[in-house]
Design goal:
mainly beta, Immunoglobulin-like, 24-stranded antiparallel barrel, nine-stranded mixed sheet, 7 helices, 8% helix, globular, disordered N terminus, Carb-bd_dom_fam9, DUF5916, hydrolase activity, hydrolyzing O-glycosyl compounds, carbohydrate binding
Length: 883
């Protein structure tokens, strides 16, 4: 069968979808054409940025009381920003319910006062939520580009209930909502209006020392009742970029960047309980910790952030899964120090922050270093050593980052972290003596970034990451260069990157040299980036020895890839919908060394939102000819062994209801068909894949809400590497390895995965909340038969009888009470409950409620902690002492 042939049903399904897609687009275009009016902007005009509006800030000398009333006379003297322009759902129209914004400033702060006129108080939605979560609420926000480079900026947003949200914007990170600043705000209701008053201290932002400054400026208002969003300076969806579409704030004179110095000390205490029920082992342990975060403004452009003896014990638990793939699971970063203000370090995707403080590199090698049991002269077996403790994380000593951007647009970032030695403890089973086994040497992690902003939303960047480990093991270094150049009209762009990886030394706890000492990667692309119709072409290579994994993450090197994509989007309402987003992708991949075919893929889809009921729907389809998976056999170097995946096609879709309703629902589902596989002496049953999810959410009140999510996924007759590897101490595994010393054991299996997640939140006020999240995950693998994988994808059924069925269960509860008792200061109380189990052979069960019962009866780890942060600002303390 040709690489590009596919099962007729899959091909026909894809053809039908394309026909429906094209027919739909044609009909919608005709409907749009029929409804065109005189004031409709053309596609060309929609891709041209709007003229930049200007607002004068007014300097004040008298004090402003932050109460949300805007009753000081000085507010009436300031120029007004009004006449906002709608961005969604219908870009272009001017607001019907006016917004009035004024900006004041003094030597220490920027003040923003806004009045949002409306029809009635019932029209103003005001759900309470935790910080950095707007929820189902109206809001007002200000956006500042303090260096006016049209690339980088800040946002400060306040909901009607007073909930604060802040973010940073950059070409590398887009919108970084993890960034948090210390600022203050108040909101009030007055008649049919709501008012917002903000005080943004200069210590929360960075700007130059120029005697007169021009900042990029925009304001945004959301009227949730009608799902409408408005900007003061029009932001056009068809124009590439966001910060470059802001207006200007003028009149800022003689303001000086302040000394930015703050200390946030913390104390925390933990009580941990796990029912070991073993002689000499305590079930309960306690700990007390202390440390601090330091923030120092080195100058007006650069800031140093440091965390001393950090404590990350209260972060949300990872979503543990059963991993059947040849690649590691990428977990989300939840530690605030590594999520806040890291946009420079994320350039090029070379930094995977979970590597810092990760599982020790020798964690899995401890058992190979134990003294094994042996027979004594008397014929009696003497037991060997056993593992007493083996820490799964590396405790950091400190972490520091320096970042900023000069007035000429040069961004500089320096990150450094230190971790101490980590040891496992093993005990001799005969005499009880204990010894330590090194699993992680003292290590230094560092990153250096230079990022030069250029005109027309362009940039060039240089990134270097380095890991240095003490002792006789290896060090790693990765250097990358990136660029993006757009034309003056911001309509076309070329981009690319070149990365070199270098590793030197021995494999940990071994005399063997690292075998991937030098590697490289490059990628280049050209694209049309603005307008209703956009497209792009890209090509890239990752060499067989490219490896950035010590401080980054890699999912399969040794490939050559190329692709083309096209998007056609309609941003204005037409027919019965608010918008339409469509895409089409065509990709192809080869193995780099040796150069051999891997896979090809064609995909298309659309999503839209209906005008009247705000029901969102979307559909995706893809088709894949025969694929050669060189990674699944886990045989290196790549090239001789691959698992052949038959031609297949997938159709999936989703429906999402209006979140403004008390009860909202998200539903999705899909099915994947595979061609039959008749290469063996007896044809295998057809592979199929099914998946669906349902997620209702219910808002009891503006303070209480619940959300439930059920994910169900079934892979029928999947063929893959037998998880758990071979144990040659077992007869069946030893016999297979003896008969086929170089070949791979594959299994045909049924994989059923079910995930239930229930979360709830009660928000007492805009500074205090209680959240709880419960997750139960179960995945069961049942093997039907086994095959020997030889070279060039040849498979032969074998009589292998060991029961390889297995089930993995994971359960987590994360309950968090959070109280921001002062700006930047917080008390948090966290309860965590966790358990997991891995069942093999006859103990494995595909029955969900049996797995749930097993999970409940498995010993659980319970952890309760309290942590207190207190924000100390140098300028605030200085003013208090002076008064």
């Amino acid at each position: 069968m040709s690489h590009f042939s596919a099962h007729p049903h899959a091909v026909n399904c894809f053809r039908v979808f394309l026909l429906l897609w094209l027919t739909t687009l044609t009909g919608l275009a005709q409907a749009q054409s029929a409804s065109t009016s005189d004031n409709t902007t053309t596609a060309a005009q929609a891709a041209v940025p709007a003229p930049k509006r200007q607002l004068q800030a007014l300097r004040i000398t008298e004090a402003i009381k932050l109460d949300g009333l805007l009753d000081e006379p000085i507010w009436q003297q300031a120029p007004i920003a009004t006449d906002f322009i709608q961005n969604r759902p219908n870009p272009g129209p001017h607001e019907k319910h006016p917004t009035e914004v004024r900006v004041l400033y003094d030597d220490a702060n920027l003040y923003v006062g806004a009045i949002m006129h409306d029809v009635s108080q019932d029209s103003i939605m005001r759900e309470l939520s935790a910080r950095d979560d707007i929820g189902n609420s109206d809001f007002f926000g200000i956006f500042l580009d303090t260096y006016h480079d049209q690339l980088n900026g800040y946002s400060f947003i306040v909901s009607t209930g007073g909930v604060q949200v802040d973010a940073r914007y950059s070409p590398a990170g887009g919108e970084d909502g993890n960034w948090n600043a210390v600022w203050d705000s108040r909101t009030t209701m007055r008649g049919t209006d709501w008012l917002c008053e903000m005080r943004i201290p200069y210590s929360a932002i960075r700007f130059s020392k120029a005697p007169e400054q021009v900042w990029g400026l925009n304001f945004m208002r959301q009227r949730k009742r009608d799902n409408q969003a408005f900007f003061w300076n029009e932001v056009k969806p068809a124009v590439d970029g966001f910060v470059n579409q802001w207006g200007e704030l003028r009149g800022l004179r003689d303001i000086t960047p302040p000394l930015r110095l703050s200390l946030t000390p913390y104390v925390s205490s933990y009580v941990n309980h796990f029912p070991y029920q073993e002689q000499g082992t305590r079930n309960t342990s306690t700990s007390f910790n202390g440390g601090a975060d330091v923030k120092w403004g080195i100058n007006e452009s650069f800031t140093l952030d440091a965390t001393l003896v950090p404590d990350f014990g209260q972060v949300q638990s990872d979503n543990q899964v059963l991993n059947l793939s040849p690649f590691e699971v990428q977990f989300q970063e939840n530690r605030q120090f590594f999520t806040e203000g890291t946009e420079l370090f994320n350039k090029g995707n070379l930094f995977y922050s979970r590597r810092v403080g990760a599982t020790p590199i020798g964690f899995d090698n401890v058992s190979s270093q134990l003294r094994q049991g042996q027979l004594g002269p008397d014929g009696q077996r003497r037991p060997g050593e056993a593992v007493v403790s083996n820490p799964g994380v590396t405790r950091l000593l400190n972490a520091t980052k320096v970042s900023g951007r000069t007035k000429n647009g040069l961004g500089v970032g320096v990150f450094n972290a230190l971790s101490n030695d980590v040891y496992a403890t093993v005990r001799d089973s005969v005499d009880g003596r204990q010894r330590d086994v090194l699993t992680q040497p003292f290590s230094n992690y560092s990153i250096m970034v230079l990022d030069q902003s250029l005109k027309n939303n362009s940039y060039v960047s240089l990134i270097n990451t380095n890991v240095t480990r003490w002792g006789s093991t290896y060090d790693a270094n990765v250097t990358g260069g990136l660029f993006r150049f757009a034309n003056k009209k911001n309509s076309y762009a070329v981009d690319g990157r070149v990365v070199y990886s270098r590793r030197r030394g021995n494999v940990f706890a071994s005399e063997k040299q690292i075998d991937d000492q030098n590697g490289y990667k490059y990628q280049v692309g050209v694209s049309k980036i603005s307008g209703n119709f956009t497209w792009g072409l890209n090509h890239g290579i990752e060499s067989d020895t490219y490896n950035p994994n010590d401080l980054g993450i890699l999912f399969g090197n040794n490939n050559i890839s190329q692709g083309v994509y096209a998007n056609y989007n309609k941003y204005k309402p037409f027919w019965k919908v608010n918008n339409l987003y469509t895409y089409f992708n065509l990709n192809h991949s080869l193995l780099y060394k040796p150069t051999r075919y891997q896979n090809a893929n064609v995909a298309a889809g659309f999503n839209t939102t209906f005008t009247k009921n705000f029901l969102s729907v979307g559909m995706d389809v893809d088709a894949n000819p025969v694929t050669h998976d060189y990674y699944e056999p886990r045989q290196y170097p790549l090239g001789d062994y691959f698992v052949r995946l038959p031609a297949n096609a997938n159709v999936s879709g989703y429906i999402s209801s209006d979140y403004r309703k008390k009860l909202a629902l998200d539903v999705s589902g899909g099915v994947r068909w595979y061609d039959t596989d008749d290469r063996l002496e007896r044809a295998r049953p057809r592979r199929m894949g099914y998946g669906w999810s349902i997620s209702p959410r219910y808002r009891v009140s503006n303070q209480l809400n619940f959300r439930y999510n059920l994910d169900w996924n079934l892979k029928q007759n999947q063929v893959g590497y037998v998880n758990g590897d071979l144990d040659e101490s077992l007869p069946d595994d030893a016999a297979f390895r003896k008969n086929y010393p170089t070949d791979v054991l594959l299994g045909r299996r049924r994989v059923l995965t079910v995930t239930n997640t229930l979360s709830g939140a009660y928000t007492f006020n805009n500074r205090m909340s209680l959240t709880i999240r419960t997750r139960h995950y179960t995945s069961t693998v049942n093997y039907a038969d086994f095959a020997r994988l030889g070279k060039n994808g040849q498979e032969v059924l074998v009589d292998y009888r060991r029961n390889r069925d297995n089930t993995f269960n994971a359960f987590n509860v994360d309950a968090v009470y959070s109280w921001w008792f002062a700006p930047g200061s917080q008390v948090s109380i966290v309860w965590k409950n966790a358990s997991s189990s891995f069942l093999e052979a006859n103990e494995a069960t595909p029955l969900y409620f049996d797995n749930l019962n097993n999970t409940i009866n498995t010993p659980h780890n319970n952890n309760i902690s309290i942590k207190i942060l207190y924000y100390l600002d140098y300028l605030m303390i200085k003013r208090r002492l002076a008064s």
